[in-house]
Amino acid sequence: MAQPQIKLYYKNVIADVIGDEHGITPAQLKELAKKTSPLISKLNKERKAGKTPYRNLPYNTKTLRQVKKLVREVKKGCDNLVVLGIGGSALGNIALQTALNPYMYNLDDKHRRGPRLFVFDNIDPPQFASFLDWVGDKLHKTIFNVISKSGQTSETAAQFLIIRKLLLNRLGRKGLQNQVIATTDAKKGTLRKITDDLKLRCLEVPDGVGGRFSVLGAVGLFSAAMCGIDIDSLLAGARDMDKKVSRKDFYKNPAAIIAAINWHLYNRGKKISVMMPYSYALKDLADWYRQLWAESLGKARDLADNEVHIGPTPIKALGATDQHSQIQLYREGPNDKLFTFLEVRDFGKPLKIGRAPDCAPELGFLAGKDLGTLLNNEKRATEYALLQDKRPCLTILFDRINAYTVGQFIYLYEVTTSFAGALFNINPYDQDAVELGKEATFALMGMPDYYKPGYKYEKFAQKIRSATKVDTKYLV
Ligand code: PA5
Questions:
Q1: What is the pLDDT of residues 298-325, one digit of tens each?
Q2: DSSP 8-state class, residue 206
Q3: pTM of the model
Q4: Alpha carbons 175 and 173: distance in angstroms, whole number
Q5: pLDDT band, residue 9 (cuts 50/70/90)
Q6: Distance, CA 88 to ligand 1 centroid (Å)?
Q7: What angle do CA 166, 167, 168 make, to 5 degrees?
Q8: Rounded to whole angstroms, how far apart are CA atoms 64 and 203?
Q9: Which residue among 89, 293, 432 has the greatest number of ligand 1 atoms within 8 angstroms of its CB, and so is best to mutate?
Q10: For 2, which DSSP code?
Q11: Among 31, 156, 239, 356, whose Cα sits 20 to 30 Å from the Cα of 184?
C-alpha cells in the first residue's frame, strides 16, 4: 500500500500571486535554480565524504537494534519515562511525542502504549520540585534517560545530580544503575565518564552529529520507541525523503526549493520566518524547527570569515489559536515575513459539530460539519487574507500525520537547513554563540580553574558580575 506523503506547495510565494515587489518572478526563480543546483551536488558530495553524518542516521541499523533491545529490557517494568536534556537533546523527543501520541497519552492508563513521558528541558525549581514530589514513591518504576552529548551542559548536569542523589538515597547504587540510561558521546565527555564509572546502560550520540540534527538517532528514538511510536516507519519516512532531497533537479528537490525561497526573500527584507502548523500535533515540530533554524543559521561570520551577522528569525505560531493573537500584525504590520503553513489533509476519524440551539440559528452553518474541515478552512481563510496583503506563504501538506510523514518532515527540514547554510555561505553545524553563555554560567556557579587549564573562571565571574550589576538609578 502506498505510504502517505508530505508535499511542498510554493505557488503563493510567486509574483503572479502576490506581485513583483514581494513575490518571486519567473526570472528570479530561474536564477535561484541556477544558484542552488550546484549546491545540490556539493551537499551530495559532502554527504558521501562523511561530512554530514546526520544524513545517514535513518540507515543506522546498529542503533535501531540497540534501541529496540533496550526497550525490550526496560519497558515492562516502567510506568514513567523521564528525559533529562535540553536543546537538541530534548526538542526532538517532545516533538515526536506530541505529533505521534494522543493528546491525553499521559493520563490515559487504559490505552497508553508505553510509560508516561516527561521531558524536562528546563531547570525551573517549582516545576522540577513538583515532579520530584510526585515521582518519589514511584522511583523503582521510573526510567531516567539523561541525554547530553557533552555532559557539561549545566541544566542537564544539575537535573541528573538531583536524580542521582535521590536514587542513591532511596534505591542504592544498584537502583541507580537500573533506573538510569545515559545517551551520550561514545568516547568523550563528562557524561561518558560518569556512564563508565557507574556502569550505566547507555546509547550513543554519533560522532559529528550535533544535538539539533540528532533526533533520528538514539537521542530521539529511545523515548519514542518506549512510548509505542513506530520508529521503523519514522526512519523509513526519512529515507524516502532522502531520495527527494538528493535529487539533482532543483525543481524536483523540495529542500533546495524551500531553502532557496527563504534565502531569496531574506535578502529582500523578509528576515522573519513563521512556521504555523494547523494541527496541535505538529506544534512542537515547529518548536524543533525553531531551534534547528536559529542555531544553525544565525551566524556572525561567513565561510570566508567576513562579518555578516546573518540569519532568518524563526517564529512559531499555531493555527487556529494564533489567528486570534498574531494575524493582525502579520497582515497589517511590516511585510518582513515568510509564512510556512503545515496543513493536514486527513485528521482521521471525523469529529462532527453538534446542531445549533433554536435560540442561536446563526450557528447553524457549523452544524454537522467536521472539526478538521473547519480547521483546514481556517488555514485557507488565513492564507487568503495574508495573500490579499501580499505576504508570501508556503505550505507543507501532510496527507496524514503518522510516523512516516513525520520522519519525512524531520529529514526535509534538516536537509533544508544544510541548503540554507550553503546559500548563506555559513557553517550551519556549529553554535559558538551559545558557548559564551554556558561558560559564563560555569564561572558564576564557581567552576574551578583546573577544569580548563589557563582559564581564569574567578576573574571571569568578577567581570560578569560587574557588567551585570543592577544600577539602582534605572530601577523603578
Ligand atoms: O543543537 C545543539 O547542539 C544544542 O542545542 C545542544 O543539543 C544543547 O546545547 C545540549 O547539549 P548537550 O547535548 O551537550 O547537553
A1: 999 999 999 999 999 999 999 999 999 9
A2: P
A3: 0.97
A4: 5
A5: very high
A6: 5
A7: 95
A8: 10
A9: 89
A10: P
A11: 239
Helix (H) or strand (E) holding 316, with range, is strand 313-316
Gap between the Cα atoms of 452 and 258, Å rounded: 42
pLDDT tens digits along 87-100: 999 999 999 999 99
Enumerate residues lining ligand 1, CB below 6 A.
86-89, 148-150, 153, 156, 210-212, 295, 431
Q: If you measure from the C-alpha of residue 90 to the centroid of ligand 1, how many angstroms do you get, rounded to a whole number?
A: 9
- pLDDT exceeds 90 at position 449: no
Q: Whose CA is nearest to atom 8 of ligand 1?
A: 87
C-alpha cell recorded at residue 265: 526573500
Confirm if 159 and 84 have CB atoms less than 8 A apart. yes
Please check whether residue 379 is in contact with residue 278, taking contact to mean a CB–CB distance below 8 angstroms: yes
Q: 347 by DSSP, 3-state: which?
A: coil
For 72, how many CA atoms within 13 A lie in the half-sphere containing its CB? 6
- Whole-number Å distance, alpha carbon 457 to ligand 1 midpoint, is 22
Nearest Cα to 416, choosing from 344, 345, 340? 340
- Pick from 86, 152, 293 the residue to mutate for probing ligand 1's pocket: most ligand atoms within 8 Å of its CB: 86
CA–CA gap between residue 210 and residue 53 (Å, rounded): 10
3-class secondary structure, 357: coil
Whose CA is closest to 235, among 350, 405, 52, 121? 405
Q: Cα–Cα distance between 163 and 312 in angstroms, integer?
A: 38
On whether the CB atoms of residues 120 and 142 are closer than 8 A, the answer is no
Residue 70 is predicted with a pLDDT of 98
From 84, 123, 153, the mutation candidate for ligand 1 (largest count of ligand atoms within 8 A of CB) is 153
Q: What are phi and psi of 267, to 5 degrees?
A: -70, -10
Q: State phi, psi for 79 to the nearest 5 degrees.
A: -95, -25
For 87-118, give one letter per residue: b (16+ CB within 10 A) or e: bbbbbbbbbbbbbbbeeebbeeeeebebbbbb
Our measurement of the distance from residue 332's CA atom to the centroid of its chain's CA atoms, rounded to an integer in Å, reads 29
Q: What are phi and psi of 94, to 5 degrees?
A: -65, -45
Counting from 1 in the atom list of ligand 1, the atom nearest the Cα of 434 is 9
Residues marked active site are found at 295, 324, 438
Ramachandran angles phi, psi of 117, nearest 5°: -120, 130
